[in-house]
Amino acid sequence: MSRNLKAMIGPSILNSDLSRLYEESQKLLDNGADYLHLDVMDGHFVPNLTFGHPIVKCLRSKIKGAFFETHMMVSKPEQWIVPMADAGVNQYTFHIEPITNVEEVCRKIKESGMKAGVAIKPGTPVTEVEKYINVADMVLIMTVEPGFGGQKFMENQMAKVKYLRENYPLLDIEVDGGVGPATIGCCATAGANMIVSGTAVIGSQDQAATIKLLRDTVQQSIKKQ
Predict the structure, then answer these.
(1) With bands split at pLDDT 50, 70 and 90, how would you rate the model's confidence at 224?
(2) Is 216 a catalytic residue?
(3) Marked catalytic residue, from 34, 137, 172, 176
(4) Fold of 2-224
(5) Is 39 a catalytic residue?
(6) Which helix H or strand E contains 199, and what residues bound it?
(7) pTM
């Protein structure tokens, strides 16, 4: 069954030079990125503040074909479903912690034409997100506390990834936070197939080589499953 999984690398553009967002994003795609991971923070669910749907829409006007995933680190994810769909987002990933109507949010996301991703912070048990696998397209396991880039990778979160992979062999499982060449091995071994990498890719002297290394490591683990 694991042959249907695909290794995908999605750089987080938040770590790039935001004054050159289009150029930086296109460079990542040219260097082999499978998708772009767009971190949206509202200053409430997390203390930081980034960008919203107007910026995403501008980026989409320049980049037509790429897969856009928005990681909604926001207190009211339902508020931005329609604007993000209109902006051209392909997958809308939101945190389950601040809301109680997860199934309804997933339904609205899909009705708007996007895929639905559900995310949990490091302190949230994997059993909390497991409840929603039947209504979501992907699960994101945070490997740092959401809100800021450049944090140290939390290897203890791999137990969640391993649990999900063992119980849901075909589920798309994403990891985000502190992931790079030094930590990709344990992510791949645990069973993650969608890899968000910010600092390690953006700051690399050879982005294409770094992306290829991450993808190859994951793909090799998929073949062994």
Answers:
(1) confident
(2) no
(3) 176
(4) TIM Barrel (3.20.20)
(5) yes
(6) helix 199-202
(7) 0.96
